[in-house]
């Protein structure tokens, strides 16, 4: 049965939420454990669907995974790893993109890997050409079949000289997870350097990998013959933190995010202050609140790290609908990441989408047929509406808009949100939201 979330909007969100490990790091760390000859231990693991998917995929490959939900401690024992049935992989892959990152570790362990047709949020084409290209450079044989992609390494995997056309997070992780046990040196130019990448490098280094990150986005990996296990506490989820901060702004509330860390939020916090939010930091977390003045419009451009993260754009767009004036957002990482604005327009927001690069830097999507810039005029009175959640971050932004809107919103498709936000229904209820859940 599908769930229906009914929201009576207009109440400021006030109180405390707890944010745990990063959705965009924890599942990758779990895959990294496959490379080890010893068990690993991961702390701060959140209860989210992406962790469930990777737990199932590791289990069908023989990894023993134990997790204590309350403490967030997970142990992974990869000492009895074997190949899994392709049908089992397909069944458990769900709508995640993580299966593609199993390629390197499974080829090192079993000599082969299988990737079913991948899922992930519909925020663009989400190709995997960079992934397949780097795997071929390591010596893998890529065999595209109707059911998915079979990848093998008949002659083993050798280090390679690589350069990414775009600093892709996933493709950088693909290289890291393959190069650490490949024979010889791998050099990756134009790599992603997101905080989650650095945390994955820390984990691999603990296992015995030799990885160097240079100031020009080049990463150098010296292949080793064996890796042990790791014991690591994941960095907190900066995207969930930014989402709650935006919720405080839009609902004119005040939210304490236990577990949040300022370090990886620099670009977000500058923007948050400029629009009219306030924050303070203590040893346990961060507090975010609406500073009381009318919100100010701004020009925003997403970018790879250390720029303004593309996953922060959606909740910030909702805040900009409440700003006094015209704002511009130029999305340069994904070509189609403004689909969520349709529901906001139905709720009363004034948002126009454009094909031009409306920002200081022309991007890959300029003069192609992508509506990747948005002009937002505010403030708009938002009223409740019927909403079907389109993707993870856009979906959470719909919740924020419905919580701020006057009147009732009926929200379906909320299961998507549990991919990245643990216990989010309990959290918004705990912040004083007037909500009810029913089965449809
Ligand atoms: C990761 O996705 C995150 N997901 C995304 O978060 C995040 O938005 C993104 O990195 C950028 O930071 C996870 O970590 C699970 P990319 P990923 O490869 O690795 C193009 C969220 O809401 N590209 O850096 O898939 C791609 O189309 C999610 O938490 C290719 O063209 O992102 C995009 O335009 C959304 N070919 C750009 O690169 C490829 O082979 C960035 O993608 C791979 C990517």
TrEMBL record:
InterPro entries: Enolpyruvate_Tfrase_dom, Enolpyruvate_Tfrase_sf, MurA_subfamily, RNA3'P_cycl/enolpyr_Trfase_a/b, UDP_GlcNAc_COvinyl_MurA. One of its GO terms (biological process) is UDP-N-acetylgalactosamine biosynthetic process. The active site is at residue 121. Residues 7-427 form the Enolpyruvate transferase domain. GO terms for cellular component: cytoplasm. PANTHER family: UDP-N-ACETYLGLUCOSAMINE 1-CARBOXYVINYLTRANSFERASE. Belongs to the EPSP synthase family. MurA subfamily. This is UDP-N-acetylglucosamine 1-carboxyvinyltransferase. It comes from Nesterenkonia natronophila.
């Amino acid at each position: 049965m599908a769930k229906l979330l009914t929201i009576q909007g207009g109440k400021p969100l006030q109180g405390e939420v707890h944010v745990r490990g990063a959705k965009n790091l924890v599942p990758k760390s779990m895959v990294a454990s496959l490379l080890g000859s010893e068990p690993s231990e991961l702390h701060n693991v959140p209860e989210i669907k992406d962790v469930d998917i990777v737990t199932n995929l590791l289990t069908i490959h023989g990894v023993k995974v134990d997790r204590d939900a309350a403490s967030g401690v997970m142990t992974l024992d990869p000492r009895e790893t074997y190949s899994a049935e392709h049908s089992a992989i397909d069944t458990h892959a769900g709508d995640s993109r993580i299966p593609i990152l199993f390629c390197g570790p499974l080829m090192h362990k079993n000599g082969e890997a299988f990737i079913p047709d991948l899922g992930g949020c519909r925020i663009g084409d989400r190709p995997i050409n960079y992934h397949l290209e780097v795997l071929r450079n390591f010596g893998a044989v890529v065999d595209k079949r109707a059911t998915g992609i079979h990848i093998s390494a008949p002659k083993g995997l050798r280090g390679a000289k690589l350069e990414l056309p775009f600093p892709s997070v996933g493709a950088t992780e693909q290289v890291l997870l393959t190069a650490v046990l490949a024979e010889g040196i791998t050099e990756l130019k134009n790599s992603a350097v997101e905080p989650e990448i650095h945390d994955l490098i820390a984990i691999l280094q603990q296992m015995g990998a030799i990885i160097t990150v240079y100031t020009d986005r080049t990463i150098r990996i010296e292949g080793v013959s064996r890796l042990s296990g790791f014991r690591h506490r994941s960095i907190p989820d900066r995207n969930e933190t930014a989402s709650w901060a935006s919720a405080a702004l839009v609902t004119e509330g005040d939210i304490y995010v236990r577990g949040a860390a300022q370090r990886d939020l620099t670009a977000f916090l500058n923007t948050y202050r400029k629009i009219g939010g306030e924050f303070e930091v203590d040893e346990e977390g961060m507090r975010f609140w609406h500073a009381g003045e009318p919100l100010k419009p701004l020009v925003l451009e997403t970018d790879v790290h250390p720029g303004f993260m593309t996953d922060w754009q959606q909740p910030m767009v909702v805040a900009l609908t409440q700003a006094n004036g015209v704002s511009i957002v130029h999305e340069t990482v994904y070509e189609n990441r403004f689909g969520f604005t349709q529901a906001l327009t139905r709720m009363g927001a004034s948002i126009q989408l454009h094909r031009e690069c409306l920002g200081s830097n022309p991007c890959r999507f300029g003069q192609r047929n992508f509506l990747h810039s948005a002009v937002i005029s505010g403030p708009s009175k938002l009223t409740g509406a019927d909403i079907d959640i389109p993707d993870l971050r856009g979906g959470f932004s719909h919740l924020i808009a419905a919580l701020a809107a006057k009147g009732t919103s009926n929200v379906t498709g909320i299961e998507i949100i549990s991919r990245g936000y643990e216990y989010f229904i309990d959290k918004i209820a705990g912040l004083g939201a007037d909500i009810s859940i029913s089965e449809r």
